[in-house]
Design brief:
Radius of gyration: 18 Å
Strand order of the largest sheet: 2-4-3
Low-confidence stretches: none
Number of strands: 5
Order of helices and strands: EHHHHEHEEEHH
Structural class: alpha+beta
Number of helices: 7
Largest sheet: 3 strands, antiparallel
Strand content: 15-25%
Length: 168
Amino acid sequence: MSWSRAEVLALATKAARGAGAPPAQAAHFGRAAAIHLGQGRDAAALGQALDALPAGAIMHMPVQLQELLLAAHGTVRHTLEIPTGGQPSLLQSYLETLPHVTEVEAAQEDSLDVTVDTTISAPALTLGRVEGCAALLAQMTVLAARTFVPDSEASRRAGAGAGTSDND
């Protein structure tokens, strides 16, 4: 079965929320996950990041990228060493969510030396299909289900569900 990157983005965002990530970090993870899988990178890195919540890469990588952009503010090119948390391919996917061109100058297992060029906008990524990561998608589906309102009479009385008069 194949999924569009938009479907992966939405599912990954919901999965991160279901695993305990705040909304902003979950949304950033969704974008990074869609890029990660769309580029054919290892799906296991995403599963490990979800398993590490409420700590780990999903919580820390967006903050590190914000620090990179703040450090680069007002400069044309700026290089910063960013810890990978043992997941360099996931950090690369996060870098590709940034609005500016980034380039990895040097890669180690524990850090990447990244240069950001604030004068050049990152090219738009083409949206394609994602295939071959059934185990990860199943894991994300289970985590995303934690965000659903329970199916009960009490939740329906509180306004959940379509009701009998909803005809959208």
